[in-house]
Amino acid sequence: MIAPPQCVLSDVWVVPVSELGTSDKQIHCRSHLGHLLHDGDCVWGFDLSQANLNDANLDKMNPADIPDVVLVKKSYGDKVKRSKQRNWQLQMIDREMDVTVATTNEKGAEEDYEEFLEDLEEDTIYRKNVNIFFNPGLQTVAVGDSDVSEDVPRVGLEEMLQEMTINDRRD
Asked: Does the pTM of the predicted model rise above 0.70?
C-alpha cells in the first residue's frame, strides 16, 4: 500500500478572520497543506503583508517574491470538544515539583500538555514512537453526534495499546 503524501503544493485563497462577512477580499497564497484543506476550512498562518520584518536576508529579496501569507497548520475546531472525544491516554511518570513553582506554572503546563496531545492526534509520524493507551473510562460519543467533524484526525484503535499495570506481588 502506498502512503499518502505528507505535503501537496496547492493554490489557496484565504480570508482573515477579522474580515469574514465584512469584506470579499481574498488573499492568494501557495501552501504545502493541499492534502488537508477543503473549502471552508480554517487555517493558522502568518500575515506577512502586515508584519514589521527586520531581517537582512529579507531586505535583499524582491518584495514581489515575499508571500503575503504563509499558512502553517489546519485548525480542527473546538479544542474542548476534541479533548472530550479523545478515547486514548498517555501514561505519565509521577513528578516531584516545588509547591510554589507548581502553582504558578500549572495552567501553562496543562495548556502545553493539551497542545502536545493535539499534535500527537494530528501527526502519524509524530506519534510513531509514542505508546498510546486505550482509555476505558471515557464515555463513548454517540455515532450520530452532529458536533463531530469528519476530517478531525483521530488515533485509530489499532494504534492503541491495552493499559498494562505491573504489581509487585510475591506469592
From this structure: no
